[in-house]
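Before drawing any conclusions, I needed to go through one protein's amino acid sequence and its backbone structure tokens, quoted below without any editing.
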Amino acid sequence: MTPLNRSTHPATTHPERVLQFGTGVLLRGLPDYLINKANQQGIFNGSIVVVKSTGGATDEFAEQDGLYTVVTRGFQKGQTVDQHTVVSAISRVLSAKEDWKAILDIAKKPSLQVIISNTTEVGIQYVAESIFQNPPQSYPGKLTAFLYERFKNFGGGRSKGLVVIPTELISDNGLKLRDIVEKLAKHNELGKLFMKWLKYHVRFCNSLVDRIVPGKPDAETHQQAQQKLGYEDKLLIMAEPYRLWAIEGDDRVKSVLTFAKADPNVIIDEDINFYRERKLRVLNGGHTISVPLAYLLGLETVNEMMNHPLMSRFVEEVITQEIVPTLPEWMIPEENPDAVREFAADVLDRFRNPFIEHLLLSITLHETSKMRARNLPTIQRYVEQQQQIPQRMALGFAAYLRFMKAVRFEKGVYLGEATTPSGGIITYPIRDDYAEYFYNMWNKVDVHDPASVRNFVQTLCADSALWETELETLSGFADTVADHLNNLLTLGVEATLERQLVTAESTTSGSGID
């Protein structure tokens, strides 16, 4: 089979305008994909130099001249999508360990405009180190060294400032990275003139990326894709159709990031909090409130969850009827009042994607912290707005409590058990920072005594240190959750879910809060 490279697939070369720290699939499936799209439309006309910060060779990229294929498969607005794109935006891939001098030389290029990174969440951490190492240990150390090299080469010229866009999945990623770089500059005594250039001519932009890019497919799927494409691609990756890159910036940032014009899913705005909040509540919150219930039903993947008649209905109703209405109106863009509902429809399409295997158990990692951050504010907003308890979210919260019921501690892991509708027993790990806390709490509960279960729920809801809020002030919430939890323990998961779906509408419309 013919290999993919620039000889077999000729591609236009462009000036190197972007330096990218990271070779991960998210960067290749979103920013690099979008820059490539702009290049194809004759808009940005810039290539990307990629820095491989971790160990390992760059041979595969060199063999394919930086080319790779993004196979896009899934559902979008009710239509099946099955497309492929050969991305030719990467000019070369360098190793931070082996090619640090060559990387610093890129700082001398007048054409350079943008720096992008995705070094995982732990990558944006302060390490008190010398930036004059070869190379520095941390990503912020490498970035500071690179910026200092550019400052020296161009004498601090304002026109040679850069736009820095971290895509690590932490809030205010740009601001946090800037603070660390400034701290490193002071630690390394780089001088007031550099600090001034850094402050006024290097723009650190908060950003939010949203696209599921599971990466290289399994061997069978990979082979099938290559057969269909008619060439060999060792770097081929899969991605869902949905994509969003929201970047916080002003007109100056827009004038540099011209690639945004090529795709409406690249958004540059002075405030991107709406996009972050929308994703946190609808997509992430929808996952967190639904997954324990689905897993206790014996389901394994998000796609299975969306193919289950009861769970599919639960997910759709909890998102559209209880989560979507709680996003504050002041936050929604005036030019698109339906932005949240449109996003919710996209989320449901994404959950139904049969081409991506998203394991439910993997989503339960740190479930308590996720529930606290993603869903409790939504529940509180719903109560404030509607003056009643969101019944489906209360059931989801009860299922989470049931999921956290460990039966034993084995080899350093707390294990839970659940009975599937077919009568089988599943054993699962509870990978949560609060697993021991819940284990001890559940040991005091008589699951056959409704009063004991109710006391357990009320005690949990009163633990303001755990939830970082006053859940007990939500009148009726603990009692509603306790009712659902008692049903889960006595009637079973499927019967409880079915009962809730039958009564949810009438209960929601008829039960107010005292």
Q: What stands out?
A: The chain has 21 helices and 15 strands.
